[in-house]
Design brief:
Layout lengths: L21 E3 L4 E2 L11 E2 L5 E8 L8 E7 L8 E9 L3 H20 L5 H20 L3 H4 L2 E12 L6 H4 L22 E9 L3 E6 L2 E4 L9 H9 L4 E2 L2 E2 L9 E2 L3 E2 L2 E2 L9 E6 L4 E7 L1 H4 L4 H8 L5 H14 L6 E8 L6
Parallel strand pairs: 2-3
Antiparallel strand pairs: 1-4, 4-18, 5-6, 6-7, 7-8, 7-13, 8-16, 9-10, 9-17, 11-12, 14-15, 17-18
Helix pairs in contact: 1-2
Length: 343
Amino acid sequence: MLPHNNHPSTPNAPEVLESADVQIEPITTARGRETFGTLNQHSSCNKAYQIGISDAQGPRPTMEDSYGFVVDFDAVRGQGLFGLFDGHGNKLAAEWCGAEFHKYLLDTLQRHPNTPIPEVLTSMFSAMDQTLSELSQSSALMAASGCTAVMAFLRIEDADGQQSFISSSPSQPADRTCLRQARTPPPTSKRVLYCANAGDARAVLCRHGEAIRLTYDHKASEQSEIDRVRKADGIIFRGRVLGYLNVTRSLGNHEAHDGFSLKKFIVGTPYTSRTELCEQDEFAIIACDGLWDVMTDQEAVDLIRGIEDVQEASKRLLGFAFGNGTRDNVTVMVVRFINTQAT
């Protein structure tokens, strides 16, 4: 692990849920502004993808989901960072992750520019979890809080996986947040989608109509996770780790339960994947288990494939979830790829 700093068949379309609980992320655009350092800000300069987000508290007493995205992430035109965090215990861990995750990835990337991205993502998750541990020492509420996490990093690369259009310029500052304008990669660049997740929040790619899962569900029903927990001297009963939590990986959860440290069993180490995008790749769906508990990956892809408007697509998925009985908070992010060339 890298050293790190701790701080810096098509279903019938349902009626879309219309209630005061439904929150639709407005498509506000920063015209003439660079947004590569700004969280949750759309940009008129972005020609590489479109983002639609919908969420709803549903019947739960509180909303414990959080999300974030950065257009032209790390000052590279066409890059994007997308994250979703599904809280449990309370909302503190998810809210903190949603507000801070992009800073942790940027810091790790800039300190380890030649490290494979999956390793960078693993180190980033570890750093975030360590900070949550430190925050938990002075806050019982934070100690009781945790969240599943899923991130997708759309990266522009050379054929060899490097970014020579950045490193080959000696005049570029090391801290790219100081730049006034994002770099435009050469047209020969490729787009690679890196994903990382801990828990059961999920990312799914639509490739020419086929659903391809990019993440792994870490649940107490998965044999590999059962074996890992047991090897750490933990137990799973009633389908939950120590009878408490049905996911086996998360960020946070730095409290003791029945005299045991939950973190010994519910670890924050993510599953990672790398997918080089091609012309057949249409969009990605990033959502919490409130959606995936009531529909399959392929059903989700089939439901929205014919919807060009990404905001309407995310809203349609949200409506399906509640129309089919989900009892959880639901957050859905749809990222539609405009083309496969860096722009």
